[in-house]
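hey so i finally got around to running both of the ones u sent me last week. sorry it took forever, my laptop kept dying halfway thru and i had to restart like 3 times lol. anyway pasting them below in the order u listed, first the sequence line then the structure token line for each. didnt double check formatting much so if smth looks off just lmk and ill redo it

first one:
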Amino acid sequence: MFLLFGVNVRAQERPLSPKARELTQALAVLRTSPDDSATQERYLKAFPHDYKEFLNLFEQDHELYDGHDFVEALSVAGKDHETDLGKLLVGLAKDAHHDADAPSYLQHSTAAYAARHPKTFAELFKQLPPEKQTQLVTFLADVENHRSYSAYQEIIDGLNGIGEDKLAIRFKEAR
């Protein structure tokens, strides 16, 4: 137990990589100025835009392990940047696989985004190749209990509400 704790402490003492430092600084600024559009944009640009890079920062034993605060901040950063946030989330989620911690936070943030912005989500979704569409649906549908995962049903309802019935059926069938 002490050995594991010692390794974790040493890992935290290492200097952050330039990407981790940039993202950490962008989060600090976002927390002080959450309503500033330029600050929001800076955070979205600093956030990893590729799933491998996302895991390299947030996976267990990596620099920013867990990533909860970083992923949660996306909703604040996307407040004035709906399309940019959607591109980021869909771009990450299309390659993601459900797992604990950061991937789980990504899953919930993407589902919440899709539920809140079904039109933009549907437009971005349709730009994906069919195999990435399937992977994205599978990623968002991969939960233990859909009854306690209201955002997923909200995606379906939102898609139906904008006339995207075929897309809504894809999500419904994935449950």
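and the second one:
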Amino acid sequence: MRHGKRKEPEDHLKAELDYLKKHLDKLWEHSQEAQERLQDIEVHVNLLTRLVTALCVEKLGMRIGVLKRLIKKIEKEAIQDSQIHHLESLYKLSHKSSEKPPPPKGETRHPWEDIS
């Protein structure tokens, strides 16, 4: 009988390991799909960049120097926007974590706790 009881934890451990292996395999598969999608997006961005450049230079008659300055300005603004967005998200996270939960009903707060 001891042998039967001893086998149960081993079976449980094996089942848990199999479960983890299946999930790791799924995560790896999702990672590969995400990598492929990222490569597709990079190709599309490259094509769109070439299209916009061709349109600006050939159809709108924009000089290359003007186009480069415009691109640098857009890049700078995009970086600033992403930094602002990042700071806003950090502020929201820190604001939420610094908020104290309200006291449970029936529990009274000492007046000195409100003074800071």
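quick thing i noticed on the 2nd:
Residues 10 and 16 are 10 Å apart (CA to CA).
anyway thats it, ttyl
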